[in-house]
Specification:
Length: 397
């Protein structure tokens, strides 16, 4: 991704915390926006690409899944003001009169320069749903006593009466905890079929670590030292924000509070506009391991939308031998952020252990779970997204 691009957002209009999913026939469009630190206007375009359920490309020509054009110039932009960091803010909505999807499924936006797809700037995933399948889901305690108080199990029922001559082996269900798309759990075979209802409820299916309510960072003001901030520092024309050191919460008792489940909101209390008046800061995260000793054979990551919900070099914390702590610096726009720490074995990663040492797991934790149901129609060359829903653990109880 272009390192001058920041704060890439995609969500249904007026629903900044929602999964970027839209209905095929009608419904709320998506709002897509990003900031560019380059000092002048850039000629940006976007296109969309249909993907399979596993996010591999389909062999289908874009003329067969897009009505209109599939190379659209981004004309809506504004220039930052009242901010030390200069940037151009670009945005657009989708679908629109120039570009509409005609098939359901997984999609990615591709934003590129100068009408040249080879000058790719970034990609972002989204979903187009047919809404032809009824989905009922609930959050349960796992049957396994070893994890019954630390993990959450999702039970799913799918009503397929609207699909004629169903081939059940061509249907698959994916469950995503909060916004962790890369750690989705997928199943093809239901454990019980009752008429038009397919049930996915085996003891070892759709099990997720519960974690704790997310940590938070209130960066809405560059003047107010909020609860999690240790100090502000100005270096030239750049803002630096040092957070108070974090440590393990594994032994802390669970308590409930409202959080963003790893997502963030771009807001501020210093100005009227958030899109182009919010400033940026270099935010230094610090994690203090026990006795200042690094984790052996394991990697520590920041987890949340602020690092694109990916565990890679961009989210990996690095150990400072002199200080005896892990640190990571991110360039963040003013807003309210939520995040966690994940510890993974370098050689034998296990998603069920993600929060065990860093956050702790409590099955009462409030989490969102999104359920996607895909079906490969007879003779089709891609996986249609027939149904989608999101449930919350508190609502489920």
């Amino acid at each position: 991704m272009d390192t001058t691009i920041h704060s890439i957002l995609i969500y249904p209009v007026n629903k900044p915390l929602a999964i970027p999913a839209i209905l095929l026939k009608e419904g709320t469009p998506l709002q897509i926006s990003f900031d560019d630190f380059k000092a002048d206007y850039q000629d940006y375009y976007y296109s969309v690409e249909l993907m399979n359920a596993d996010w591999t490309p389909t062999p289908i020509n874009s003329f067969d899944y897009v009505q209109g054009f599939n190379q659209i110039k981004i004309n809506d932009y504004s220039v930052s003001s009242m901010a030390y960091q200069h940037y151009f803010h670009y945005q657009f909505t989708f679908p629109n009169a120039n570009c509409k999807p005609t098939k359901s499924g997984n999609y990615i936006f591709k934003v590129f320069k100068n009408g040249n797809i080879n000058e790719l700037v970034f990609t972002k995933r989204f979903y187009v749903v047919e809404d032809q399948i009824g989905i009922a889901a609930a959050v349960l305690e796992p049957f396994d006593g070893a994890i019954s108080k630390t993990h959450q199990k999702i039970s799913v029922q799918v009503d397929v009466k609207e699909i004629p001559s169903l081939q059940s082996d061509q249907l698959q269900v994916a469950v995503v905890q909060n916004y962790r798309y890369n750690d989705a759990i997928k199943l093809v075979t239901p454990n019980f079929i009752r008429g038009n209802i397919l049930e996915y409820n085996k003891e070892d299916q759709f099990i997720f670590p519960a974690g704790k309510e997310s940590r938070w960072l209130d960066l809405q003001s560059m003047q107010l030292v909020s609860d999690r901030i240790s100090k502000f520092q100005k270096v030239g024309d750049q803002n630096y924000v040092y957070l108070k050191p974090d440590g393990s919460r594994a032994d802390m008792a669970y308590y409930s509070f409202k959080d963003l489940n790893g997502n963030y909101l771009i807001t501020n209390t210093d100005a009227l506009q958030s899109d182009n008046q919010n400033d940026y800061a270099h935010v230094v995260f610090t994690y203090w391991p026990k006795d200042h000793i690094p984790f052996l054979g394991q990697k520590l990551y920041l987890e949340g939308a602020m690092v694109n919900n990916e565990l890679n070099k961009n989210s990996e914390m690095l150990f400072d031998v002199k200080l005896g702590v892990y640190q990571k610096t991110l360039v963040l726009k003013q807003g309210y952020y939520s995040y966690n720490y994940i510890l993974r074995d370098s050689h034998d990663p296990n998603t069920l252990d993600d929060y065990t040492e860093t956050e702790g797991n409590h099955w009462e934790t409030e989490n969102n779970y999104s359920i996607f149901v895909y079906y490969r129609l007879p003779g089709a060359q891609h996986d249609s997204l027939m149904g989608f829903t999101t449930i919350n653990t508190k609502q489920s109880w």
